[in-house]
Write a structure and sequence with these properties.
The complex is a heterodimer of chains A (563) and B (127).
Chain A: H1 2-31, E1 36-37, E2 43-44, H2 49-60, H3 74-103, H4 105-122, E3 127-131, H5 135-146, E4 150-155, H6 158-166, E5 175-177, H7 183-188, E6 196-201, H8 206-219, E7 225-228, H9 232-240, E8 245-247, H10 249-262, H11 264-274, E9 291-295, H12 299-310, E10 314-319, E11 328-330, H13 336-341, E12 349-352, H14 357-370, E13 375-379, H15 386-392, E14 396-398, H16 400-413, H17 415-424, H18 429-442, E15 449-454, H19 461-468, H20 475-478, E16 492-498, E17 501-504, E18 517-522, H21 524-535, H22 537-545, H23 553-562
Parallel strand pairs in A: 3-4, 3-6, 4-5, 6-7, 7-8, 9-10, 9-12, 10-11, 12-13, 13-14
Antiparallel strand pairs in A: 1-2, 15-18, 16-17, 16-18
Helix pairs in contact in A: 1-2, 1-3, 1-4, 5-16, 10-11, 10-12, 10-16, 11-18, 16-17, 21-22
Chain B: H1 3-23, H2 35-52, H3 58-87, H4 94-124
The chains are: A alpha/beta (563), B mainly alpha (127).
């Protein structure tokens, strides 16, 4: 590919280079034929090839040393006049061609594509391929960057890629402005690279996501794909060929809302575990049961209605295209009259769920004016309107890009979390509440970092070596501060996976074995503290036994002698 | 008929013939090897090289390589000539003449390879 650029330059420069060679040849030949003159004014033989080439070289490049070796005859000057203008034309032609080539859009594209490819090829650590860097994509990228996860970005919009270049990412992130739904571009971005660990198809266009998912399934069947879908048909299509994880933000939000109504504590627990690590705690949501008004009955509205009805909520639907059946009223819901007609006086909640942000805000504001204690759920379609929605301050806000981003990050960074979340369904409300309280005190008003670690040779060599020798080690003994072992680390073990067996919320007496897979919740600083203990044998010896000696072989021998 | 092919073939063959013209004759007799012929061979060889720029096929690459070899040999011959005539003042003695001519002989070989490749390419062509 690098050759490509080189050959492209050569191909375009062919004509100017030949022109220059010809101009030089004619000029030099002329000078070797035109008779000269010596110091006394007598006719002298013409310049030799050597002198002619010397003279033309410095004249053509406008260096101009003068008439060397002796003053020229009038005939020579006449010919030199011709040479000067010829060579100026030749050089300007070359320079203009070269500049035109450098400014050529296609040429610049080749250059950036080459650079991108080289950077991708040079990646050594495992990376994710992020297709589409809109609102969702940027959110995910920022979080990947924060946890030091490498990633490659493909985005159709050139402006967004340029913005990405300007963001001060810690990691060196290759980004290319190209259509990710074309398989060639996916390959260019390292789909078959041996360090590629996953593909995120999260563009705004669900057809493109579908194309990406299929391309990955066929070209690199072992690589997991996470795809974003909006409609039922695409979701079904994605599932049909085994897409590893499909995120439909509408469905996800409807599930959350229904769960928040039915089991608020469990919803709170899931919310804490899946939110972005170390962000401020979200306010607790307590949506009331009873009768709700739903404005907007499109794709979003239909899913929400279905989920809420199963949670035991009755609904009145307001939609411009309402078919006029029971509980359905035609209109936008932005006017007080429609809302009153829908029975806002008896309602306990309202969902402003149309696909128009301004209408949604208008619905929300009108509804609060009519009934201040109403529980308001807003749907925000565009991140650009964040300021407006924040100023309004709905009890429950649905932002599709955030839902997709949170879920992607949670799944990708901690695969064990998904397994834990499926088991959370078994917990009753009281248990969930205890866990929520524990998590909230753990991280001083921030959301916890949920992370997994395998007690393997690669991830935790120190503890792995120790468990290998057969020494028993309990969870409580291990989770101690590496700077002061009398302090227990403030962290919550959520799950231990050993082979096919999982232990939910293991207590301190749990005895660890090698290759156990642990899921833990703590702050980022505590995580680093424990990771160091797990990797460094000396640190581990201190934490487990209180020994502070170094691992030096000589010192150990000496100590053995002394005792 | 493709004009590009005509020009291309013309310059490759011309480079070889001019080179041959300079090379032919007793190797140590300067009056048989005129410097104008060397200059013409060098210029045409350079043009032939430029014409081969940008062809990404395997044959194109070998074309370019042989041309670069010929250029290198001819430039070396020209430098030898310039050194003998203008720098050391030795003039075209039999020993200098033979080294200039033998250098151009090397270039001639490269040019012949170029011509052979040109012929092979033409034979292989199906249009």
């Amino acid at each position: 590919m690098t050759n490509n650029t080189f050959f492209l330059v050569l191909r375009r420069m062919r004509a100017p280079i030949i022109a220059l060679i010809v101009i030089y040849a004619i000029s030099i030949l002329g000078l070797t034929l035109v008779p000269g003159i010596d110091a006394e004014g007598r006719p002298a033989p013409p310049l030799s090839f050597f002198h002619a080439f010397y003279f033309i070289s410095y004249t053509a490049t406008t260096i101009g040393f003068g008439e060397i070796p002796v003053a020229f005859s009038e005939a020579q000057r006449l010919w030199v006049l011709v040479c000067i203008y010829l060579s100026v034309i030749g050089w300007s032609y070359s320079v203009v061609t070269l500049i035109a080539l450098l400014q050529d859009k296609g040429f610049q594209n080749t250059l950036t594509t080459n650079r991108f490819m080289r950077r991708v090829q040079r990646l050594k650590e495992p990376f994710y391929l992020v297709c589409g860097c809109g609102e969702t994509g940027s959110l995910i990228c920022r979080n990947f960057d924060r946890i030091g996860q490498a990633f490659v970005v493909l985005e159709k919009d050139e402006l967004r890629v340029e913005e990405l270049d300007l963001q001060d990412f810690k990691t060196d992130t290759p980004a290319l402005a190209a259509d990710a739904s074309l398989p060639d571009n996916l390959l260019l971005a390292g789909l078959k690279h041996k360090a590629c660990t996953g593909v995120l198809a999260i563009t705004n266009d669900e057809q493109a996501n579908l194309a990406i998912a299929i391309a990955v399934r066929l070209l690199a069947p072992d690589i997991p794909v996470i795809a974003r879908a909006r409609s039922q048909s695409i979701t079904g299509n994605l599932a049909s060929f085994g897409t590893d994880h499909i995120i439909n933000p509408f469905e996800r939000f409807a599930d959350h809302l229904a769960l928040a109504v039915a089991a608020p504590e469990r919803f709170r627990l899931i919310e804490l575990l899946t939110s972005l690590p170390e962000s401020p705690l979200p306010p607790p949501h307590r949506p009331p049961k009873g009768h709700w008004i739903l404005c907007g009955y499109g794709r979003f509205g239909q899913i929400v209605a279905q989920r809420l009805r199963t949670a035991g909520i009755t609904l009145t639907i307001i939609d411009p295209a309402a078919p006029g059946s029971d509980h359905e009223i035609s209109g936008d819901g932005t006017e007080a009259a429609t809302l009153l007609q829908a029975g806002i006086a008896n309602a306990s909640g309202i969902i402003a769920g149309s696909d128009n942000d301004i209408n949604n805000l208008s619905i929300a504001v009108t509804a609060t004016e009519l009934k201040p204690d109403l529980f308001v759920v807003t749907r925000q379609n565009q991140a650009a309107n964040s300021a407006l929605f924040a100023a309004y301050g709905a009890e429950f806000a649905m932002v599709p890009s955030h839902i997709v981003a949170h879920e992607c990050i949670a799944i990708l960074t901690t695969p064990l979390l998904a397994r834990f979340l499926t088991r959370v369904v078994e917990f009753d409300e009281a248990r969930c509440q205890r866990l929520v309280e524990k998590l909230q005190t753990l991280c001083h008003g921030l959301t916890p970092t949920v992370w997994g670690v395998r007690l393997s040779q690669a991830e935790a060599p120190a503890i792995h070596a120790r468990l290998r020798t057969g020494e028993a080690c309990t969870l409580a003994a291990l989770l101690r501060d590496g700077t002061d072992r009398s302090q227990a680390l403030p962290m919550l073990p959520l799950l231990v996976e050993r082979g096919n067996e999982t232990t939910l919320l293991p207590d301190g007496d749990f005895v660890l074995a090698e290759d156990d897979h642990l899921l833990l919740a703590s702050t980022h600083a505590i995580r680093r503290n424990l990771e160091f203990t797990l990797q460094n044998a000396n640190e581990l010896a201190y934490v487990l036994d209180g020994r502070t000696d170094s691992g030096s072989w000589l010192w150990q021998k000496l100590q053995g002698k002394l005792h | 008929m493709n004009l590009e092919k005509v020009v291309f073939g013309f310059f490759i063959v011309l480079a070889a013939t001019l080179n041959f013209g300079f090379f032919i004759g007793d190797i140590d007799r300067p009056e048989l090897h005129h410097v104008y012929e060397l200059a013409a061979a060098l210029v045409v060889s350079l043009i032939a090289t430029a014409l081969k720029f940008g062809d990404r096929t395997q044959i194109g690459a070998i074309h370019l390589a042989t041309s670069l070899v010929a250029d290198l040999q001819l430039v070396a011959a020209a430098i030898t000539w310039a050194l003998a005539v203008h720098v050391t003042g030795e003039g075209m003695t039999p020993s200098v003449t033979s080294s200039v001519v033998s250098l151009s002989g090397g270039a001639l070989f490269a040019n012949i390879v170029s011509v052979i490749i040109l012929i092979i390419e033409t034979v292989m062509m199906r249009r």
